[in-house]
Amino acid sequence: MMYSDVGRLNCNVSYTNFATPVRGQGSDNKEFSSILHKALEGAIILDSFPKTTVDVFALVLESGGSDLPVVISCASLALADAGIMMYDLVASVSVSCLGKNLVIDPISEEESYQDGSLMITCMPSRNEITQLTITGEWSTPKIHEAMELCLDACSKLGKIMRSCLKETASASQE
């Protein structure tokens, strides 16, 4: 690799053989790895890491649904806890449309019956969306309702994530 003034980010999401009810389902997930990369790269200050590669390896031990938003939020916390310079934490939430109902962070069974899904990944303090994924058929009012639900949940999740980091930092100083 050639010299670079900007650091690089590598992401890899994989599942254990026993993570899902169907053994060996999705042991290496390139799509999830790519989405994780896109969600995090805008939050990390890569200019502060010349000639450096930041590797994020996420291993899902048990899949219960809404795996990707959990992986993204946890990876963001891990980076911040490791002292990687970031513009903001990255929080991620998904919503499933089940008929006329919206379900936030659906479990696997709900995901299997969904008419559509929406996932938002954002930097809550900066009010910036880093990733938006929509699948299925949605009406415009339902999309707006789902986006508001996700953004509100991301804001609340961001506060909880900050609180966890502060607790960890104060506990390590004692």
Automatic annotation (TrEMBL):
It holds the Pfam family RNase_PH_C. GO terms for molecular function: RNA binding. The keyword Nucleus applies. Gene3D superfamilies: GHMP Kinase, N-terminal domain. It is found in: Cytoplasm; Nucleus. Its main location: cytoplasm. CDD domains: RNase_PH_MTR3. Residues 7-84, 88-149 form the Exoribonuclease phosphorolytic domain. The keyword Zinc-finger does not apply. One of its GO terms (cellular component) is nucleolus. InterPro entries: ExoRNase_PH_dom1 (IPR001247), ExoRNase_PH_dom2 (IPR015847), ExoRNase_PH_dom2_sf (IPR036345), PNPase/RNase_PH_dom_sf (IPR027408), Ribosomal_Su5_D2-typ_SF (IPR020568), RNase_PH (IPR050080). Belongs to the RNase PH family. This is Exosome complex component RRP41-like.
